[in-house]
Fold this protein.
Amino acid sequence: MKKIMLMMMMAVMVAVCGMAQSSATYMTYSGDTVTNTATKYVLQKVDTRTVDMVTFQVVNKKVSGTVAGNTLFQASLDGVNYITLDTLTNTNVAYNSAFFVDNPAKYLWYKITSTGSGTMVMTTKGYAILRKNK
């Protein structure tokens, strides 16, 4: 009887571990500093064979000056020619932040492009969660 119970518990554990692996979540982070009218990029390559949904967050933090400019959420199939999917207009506040979701993930490359305007310094950071749906 004890052996049967032990085998049943092991079977449940294997099933739970198998389910956890089928919906893996990955987190990445990258960032840079945008000064005046400079442009900085945060790139993320996505393997659409193993990832079904992508969620990105961009966080732009004011360092000095009057923050202005735009942050573009872009996508590409070849990693060279990008289209803009959404835009965040940066204003002169402590933080400018936005979420971008692509479900299902349709592109191989995603890029966050932050461009400053005027006399300013801000840090731009990008976070990505790559999910495998069931």
Summary: The beta strands are 25-35, 39-45, 53-65, 69-76, 83-89, 95-102, 109-116, 120-131. The domain at 24-131 is CATH 2.60.120.510 (Jelly Rolls). The chain has one helix and eight strands. Residues 42 and 64 are 21 Å apart (CA to CA).
